[in-house]
Design a protein that fits this description.
By secondary structure, the chain is of the alpha/beta class. Helices cover 34% and strands 22% of the residues. The longest helix has 13 residues. The relative contact order is 0.23.
């Protein structure tokens, strides 16, 4: 059996071997939830970039640009980091450039060495698990965390995926076991389980409770975003 591992924050990624691994990047609040939602609603591609400058360059070249720092939209850009902004019919067929505090940075860190990079959220958990059951590689879930620190919601997602794949993959490392046990503890009511988490408090101050509740819904979409070149597209 192949291994299933969890990296709790991008700052620990150098401790993991990616050469034979599919990396699943997750940033539940809210980057990867936005990516899954956008592709499910007809966005053609999403190009994740690490810096605001790169995002601005792509905007200047005609991309619709989404930029977020510290959970708020960066001035001068088209979209914020709310999944609801990615449901707009005007975005069907669009190419979006996106930069966020944590999630797009994680993708940038993973893409050099991984076999491939997929994007995971609770919204596409089942579709992602189904896809990974057919893969011959190890799996590493890269939790985007918050500015280098682990966070609760990304770890819970990693645990949910670990639980889904426990019969097909070996959970060898403690981070995978920790995530799995945490998820099993909280799965009855994820919303109340994350209620006191730092990121939820941060977002609640900005009045975006609906984004939190939406992002904790499971299996809304049958979409697996995959990084092809520098852009995320829907895997067919």
């Amino acid at each position: 059996m192949n291994n299933f591992d969890v990296c709790l924050t991008p700052d620990l990624l150098h401790l993991h071997r990616l050469e034979n691994s599919i990396v699943v990047v997750t940033d539940i609040f809210r980057a990867t939830s936005c990516m899954v939602t956008g592709l499910a609603h007809g966005v053609e591609s999403i190009t994740p970039v690490a810096t605001v400058e790169e995002c601005k360059n792509l905007q200047d070249r005609g991309y619709i640009a989404a930029a977020e720092r510290n959970a708020q939209k960066v001035e001068g850009f088209d979209l914020d980091n709310s999944p609801f902004s990615f449901m707009n019919e005007k975005l069907i067929g669009a190419k979006i450039a996106m930069t966020t505090t944590n999630g797009t940075l994680s993708i940038a860190k993973a893409k050099g060495s991984a076999v491939k990079v997929l994007v995971g959220a609770f919204l596409n958990l089942g579709a992602l698990a189904d896809h990974l059951r057919k893969e011959p590689y190890d799996v590493l879930v890269l939790c985007s965390g918050w500015k280098g620190r682990p966070n609760l919601e990304d770890t819970l997602f990693a645990g949910a995926l670990a639980e889904s794949l426990k019969n097909e993959y070996t959970l060898q490392e403690d981070s995978a076991l920790m995530a799995q046990r945490l998820y099993n503890q909280g799965k009855g009511n994820l919303l109340s389980f994350v209620a006191n988490s730092s990121h939820v408090r941060r977002l609640q101050r900005l009045g975006i409770q609906k984004d939190i509740a939406y992002s904790l819904q499971t299996d809304l979409y049958d979409v697996v975003p995959v990084l092809r070149g520098s852009s995320l597209v829907q895997m067919h």
